[in-house]
Specification:
It is built from seven helices and nine strands. The chain has about 210 residues and is of the alpha+beta class. The radius of gyration is 17 Å and the shape is globular. The two termini are about 20 Å apart. The N terminus is likely disordered.
Length: about 210
C-alpha cells in the first residue's frame, strides 16, 4: 500500500474557516512534523496568480477527482499503558479525535462520539493530548465512556497532524484513506453530513 503526504481538500479548508474559531479550545502545540505537512491548497494557489490561464488550470484541478491519501501506521498508548497502533483498526471507518479534559467543547462533544463508537462500522479513537494518565482516567471513569481512549502526553501525535486546538477530528476510511479533518466541536448534523459524503466516495470506488 502506498502512502501519501497529508493533504486537506478545499472542502476541508472551508470547514476549518467557518468552524474552528467558534467551537474549539486553543492550544500551544508545536509545529507539525514534516512527515505530514499540509501542502498548499488550491485557494492559496489562486492568490498567487491572477491571470486567466492560471485560474482556469486551478479550477480544472480543483474539480477533478482527487487521488486518495493514506495515513501511515503509528503507535497508540492506551490508558492502562498497553500499546497498539492505528492499523489494528483496519476494516472500520475511523474517527481520530484529539481532545483534552479541560476543553469545554470536548466535554460537550464527548457523549456524541462515545455513542458513535457503538456503531458496528465505526471506531472512535479518543486521543487525550498533554495530560497525564490519572487525569484522563478519572475523567473517563466519571462519565463511564466506553470508546477507546489513548494518551498523547507530549503532544507528539497532535503536532504530527497539525492540530492547533481541541477538539479536532480526522475521518479515515477502512483502509486508512484520509477523508476529512474537522477542527472544532461536531454535532449530529455535522457527523451525518460527513458520513454521507464518505459513503458516497466509497460507493463511487466500488
Amino acid at each position: 500500500m502506498k502512502y501519501f503526504k497529508f493533504k486537506p481538500t478545499a472542502l476541508v479548508a472551508l470547514i476549518m474557516l467557518f468552524s474552528f474559531t467558534a467551537s474549539a479550545c486553543s492550544s500551544n502545540l508545536a509545529t507539525p512534523q514534516a512527515s505530514l505537512t499540509t501542502e498548499q491548497n488550491s485557494t492559496e494557489a489562486i492568490t498567487a496568480g491572477s491571470d486567466e490561464s492560471t485560474t482556469n488550470d486551478i479550477t480544472t484541478e480543483a474539480t477533478s477527482e482527487p487521488e486518495p491519501y493514506y495515513i501511515p501506521d503509528f503507535k497508540l498508548t492506551a490508558l492502562d499503558g498497553t500499546e497498539t497502533s492505528l492499523h489494528a483498526y483496519e476494516g472500520q471507518i475511523i474517527v481520530i479525535n484529539f481532545w483534552a479534559t479541560w476543553c469545554k467543547y470536548c466535554i460537550t462533544e464527548m457523549p456524541l462520539l462515545d455513542e458513535l463508537d457503538k456503531r458496528d462500522d465505526v471506531t472512535v479513537l479518543a486521543i487525550s493530548v498533554n495530560e497525564d494518565q490519572k487525569t484522563v482516567q478519572d475523567y473517563i471513569d466519571k462519565y463511564d465512556y466506553s470508546m477507546p481512549v489513548f494518551l498523547d502526553e507530549n503532544g507528539d501525535l497532535a503536532s504530527m497532524f497539525g492540530v492547533t486546538g481541541f477538539p479536532t477530528s480526522l475521518f479515515l476510511g477502512p483502509d486508512f484513506e484520509y477523508f476529512y479533518i474537522y477542527p472544532g466541536m461536531v454535532d449530529q448534523k455535522t457527523l451525518d453530513s460527513i458520513f454521507e459524503a464518505i459513503d458516497e466516495i466509497m460507493k463511487d470506488r466500488q
